[in-house]
Amino acid sequence: MQLNVNQKFENIAVAVRQITRKTDQNNKNYYHLQVSIGLKNYDSKIWNDDEKIGEEIIPGCLAYISGIARDFKGSLQLHINSIQRIWNPSQELLNSILPSGYVNENDMVLEINNIISTISNPFIKTLLENIFAMPDVKKHFYKKAAGAEIHHAYQGGLAQHTIEVVKLIQSYCKIFSYIKYDIAVAAALLHDIGKIYELSSFPENKYTTKGRLLGHISLGADLVSRAISEIKDFPNDLKYDLIHCILSHHGTLDMGSPVLPMTIEAIAVHNADKASAEINAFHLAIERDTGLDGWTEYNPTYRRSIKK
Question: Stretch 127-138: mean pLDDT, rounded?
Answer without folding.
Answer: 98
